[in-house]
Structure to design on (188 residues):
């Protein structure tokens, strides 16, 4: 029997002791009723034991030619255009009909909805009256989201807004001190 696909990674982590106590407990309770996951844990545990028992040589070194090939392939992948990457993934996705059919259905649905949306006449928005966008950002409330929005446009504009807000004259408000608090009845 095959293990549950959602548990494969967790079972491998359980075999090497990388799960926390709660995750391990939950997984072990699942494996009580799932023969496929129990068998997979036995296989992975066997592999883990063999790897732990194997002698490793720390003096092994890769040749210079190997390093050059790795670097060349990494550079080739970096230089691949977005379209080449999409084409490779597209071919891989469409090689399995179980993936291809839903993807085609989604693409057709998007095209139909886009065509319907295109045929709907939307009245054009009237242009903004008065202040320019930079002037509008001056009047925004001093909140983090507004500062973030301004910073996404221009850091210089954010600097201007913060400087302007720091230099504005705030209305005088009364300052309260402890000496202004009413005193209780004191004996004469």
């Amino acid at each position: 029997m095959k293990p549950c696909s959602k548990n494969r990674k967790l079972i491998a982590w359980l075999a090497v002791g990388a799960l926390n106590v709660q995750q391990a407990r939950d997984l072990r309770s699942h494996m009580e009723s799932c023969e496929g996951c129990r068998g997979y844990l036995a296989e992975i545990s066997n592999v883990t034991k063999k790897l732990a028992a194997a002698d490793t040589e720390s003096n092994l070194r890769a040749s210079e030619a190997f390093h050059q090939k790795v670097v060349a392939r990494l550079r080739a992948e970096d230089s691949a255009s977005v379209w080449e990457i999409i084409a490779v993934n597209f071919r891989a996705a469409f090689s399995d009909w179980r993936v291809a059919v839903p993807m085609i259905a989604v693409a057709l649905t998007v095209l139909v909805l886009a065509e319907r949306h295109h045929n709907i006449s939307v009245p054009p928005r009237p242009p903004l009256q008065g202040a320019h966008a930079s002037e509008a950002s001056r009047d925004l409330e001093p909140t983090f989201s507004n500062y973030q929005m301004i910073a996404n446009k221009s850091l210089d504009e954010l600097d201007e807004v913060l400087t302007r807000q720091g230099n504005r004259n705030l209305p005088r408000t009364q300052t309260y001190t402890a000496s202004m608090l009413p005193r209780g009845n004191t004996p004469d």
Observations:
- The chain has three domains: 5-53, 64-118, 133-166.
- The longest helix spans residues 97-119.
- DSSP finds nine helices and no strands in the chain.
- Residues 133-166 form one domain.
